[in-house]
Amino acid sequence: MTVPTNPGKAETPKLDTTIMHKGLEGIVAAQTAISHIDGINGRLFYRGLDIDDLAAHSTFEETTALLWYGKLPNKSQLDSFKNKFIANRLIPNEVISILLMLPKQTTPMGVLRTAVSALAPYDPATGDNSLDANVNKSIRLTASLPTIVAAWDRIRNGLWPVTPSTHLSHAANFLYMLTGKEPSETAARILDTCLILHADHGLNASTFAARITASTLSNLHSAVVSAIGTLKGSLHGGANEQVMRMLLEVGNVDRVDQYMRGAFSAKKKIMGFGHRVYKADDPRANWLQRLSHELSEASGNMRWYEISERIRQIVQDNKSLPVNVDFYSASVYYTMGIPIDLFTPIFAVSRVAGWTAHVYEQYSDNRLIRPESEYIGPMNVPYTPLDQRGK
Description:
It contains 16 helices and 3 strands. It has 391 residues and is mainly α. It has a domain of 161 residues: Orthogonal Bundle (Citrate Synthase, domain 1). A 3-stranded antiparallel β-sheet has the order 1-2-3. A hairpin with a 2-residue loop joins β2 and β3. α10 crosses α16 and α11 crosses α15. The longest helix has 26 residues.
């Protein structure tokens, strides 16, 4: 399969320096053929395919091929793609040695950022920015991220990392490396669906960071490190961790109403609601709600799902805010037994597929991303000699 280049570009609009958009809200900064968000109707498309169809029928490996190559692979192409992922799951011993030296209190996202940077010198094509080289680097990176995350969780708990499987799917292999046991078909399928749902989402903050870095003609590893550093923030990838901590603080469905009254009174932000683009419920959240319910029933523990449902009802009754992807992903991962501080790294394990697709697209029609700023400081300030500045 060949990776598509940008099919064309529209005339660049003139910059209006009289208007300042805080957070760049409403600003079109790039053209893309990778994903499209219909925020009014709550729909998401990858390469024109509805996320509902992909979540129902696809796999993460197939979805990644779609994002990178522009179309769904045939069986032979998909088998080859899967085998390349499997062949690149091991990470260099030197990178494992770095993980072993890190303080055990280092956050998993901090570890992931460091490890991806450390992988660059060991990649045979690290300095090659050609399309073919970047696709091969993306395969190695996407295959490596679950290994890094799982290895760190083992190391910080005094355990040796589990060698990656040579036959399990991308999602199942991650769960296997976390626990040393092959997951159930249900758990593997649900995590696979979660990875599909998180794989790309337009020009979100981390993807924009990756494209900014790529626009300087820095290499792919640098772009992914930039994206990971951006995803690490609590207003982006870290939101699902805060959702789960909120659920734990509530503790029981009988306490939800009291907790929410206090949160509203204190003007506390309720994580998992509202979105810069969606004006309707996030379609990914609808899938995650179903997955949370399925997992809860299968485990015999409905507590976190029931608390989530009651919080959602109260928020939407009082503030009419749409639910977003972070809200139900928290209870899904927690019910699967995944540590809370691994929720955001799992986001990265998936989103690296989208980040790298955007890097290809940026390189294919590149212009250095360099927005303007509006200066609001003082002007014509006289220089005061050092001996006249007082104490």
